[in-house]
Amino acid sequence: MGSSGSGGSVSGMATLEYTDELTFTNTKNVLIDNGIVLDSLPYIAILAVVIGVVVWMIIRRRRRDD
Fold this sequence. Notes:
Layout: E1 2-3, E2 10-11, H1 41-65
Antiparallel strand pairs: 1-2
């Protein structure tokens, strides 16, 4: 089996007998992203402003035509 540095991964191939037991414990604590990333928030805000302006222009044009 091979191992790489601290925090690295272990890989290899082994043959287990029927009486052998393999136990693996995952001790890495990782938070999963569950929301809007702040990197994309400005683009979402710009899209909302553009949609708002388009709706405002359509309503304004309909009122002018009446």
